[in-house]
Design a protein that fits this description.
The protein is an alpha+beta fold and about 280 residues long. The chain is built from 7 helices and 13 strands. Strands 1, 2, 3, 4, 5, 6, 7 and 8 form an 8-stranded antiparallel sheet that branches. Strands 9-13-12-11-10 form a 5-stranded antiparallel sheet.
Length: about 280
């Protein structure tokens, strides 16, 4: 499998252009070799997951060392997935899948053996994207959106209801699955581009799913249609709930805005995206 900077397919032309303009390759530590990984799995799990090991090596060949400034993370990031097994949780993960080049010790990005991307903040983790390709497409679309005219930034108390209101008022909006995830959604009708980001809402949610940080909804006026919008689906009803937000305290909007400026991510849940 070729590195994504050599053979970017099946990424969209927008994502390929984004990587060509912004990305570069750096050296990262691949972690333990296959025999050490097998020994660790056998000791912690009682079996060896060869499929997970094969997936890790394929992911490393495609992504390891990729680095660029991520609009979604609002930081310089590097892809460096390595094998990790938690004996207590009996769980495999690929740590450092997406990490800040200047880590703060608080937030991180990991992958699970099913290929999904999770972001963490301290002890909290949230499932964010179905794959690294989805994450890359989201970054590329954020980069594109940054060159459009920003129409609004909203912090709805109920992101699910807000999304339904948008769909009711703009029935031609369709979901861009290729850049969307489990707490991030993109919608367009070729005249506007709507972005829901509820990652921080998910990461700060309590046991009831309520968060003091709201989902962030941004809308841009498009100068030109999103080139691969046709690959999205028209969805007028969504079954997967958005993590609800509590009514913000008097300074809630300011807190939300500060988080936007710092991490560039907050958003709503979604239906299972297409790969």
């Amino acid at each position: 499998m070729a590195h994504v900077l050599e053979v970017a397919a099946p990424l969209s032309s927008r994502a390929r252009s984004f990587l060509a303009e912004h990305a570069r390759l750096t050296v990262v530590d691949p972690g333990p070799d296959d025999d050490k990984c097998r020994a660790a799995m056998s000791a912690a799990l009682g079996y060896v997951d060869e499929r997970a090991l094969t997936l890790l090596r394929n992911i490393q060949r495609r992504y390891s060392g990729l680095t660029y400034h991520s609009p979604f993370r609002d930081s310089e990031i590097v892809f460096g997935p390595v094998f990790e097994v938690d004996a207590d949780q009996r769980q495999l993960s690929f740590d450092n899948a997406i990490m800040d080049t200047a880590p703060d010790g608080c937030r991180y990005g990991v992958m699970r053996p099913d290929g999904t991307v999770w972001f963490g903040l301290f002890e909290a983790e949230a499932q964010a994207f179905p794959s690294l390709d989805h994450f890359l497409e989201c970054d590329a679309l954020l980069d594109h959106a940054g060159r459009q005219g920003l129409r609004s930034t909203e912090l709805p108390a109920d992101a699910t209801a807000h999304r339904q209101m948008l769909l009711d008022h703009h029935p031609n909006l369709r979901r861009l699955d290729r850049a969307s995830g489990f707490c991030v959604e993109w919608w367009t009708d070729d005249e506007q581009l709507v972005y829901f980001n509820g990652l921080d809402a998910r990461l700060t949610a309590d046991v009831h799913g309520a968060s003091w940080i709201p989902t962030v909804v941004r809308t841009w006026q498009l100068d030109e249609p999103v080139s691969w919008a046709a690959q999205g689906r028209s969805i007028t009803s969504v079954t997967a709930p958005v993590a609800p937000s509590r009514t913000p305290a008097p300074n809630g909007a300011e807190i939300g805005s500060a988080v936007i400026a710092r991490t560039h991510h907050q958003d709503c849940g979604v239906t299972s995206p297409d790969s």
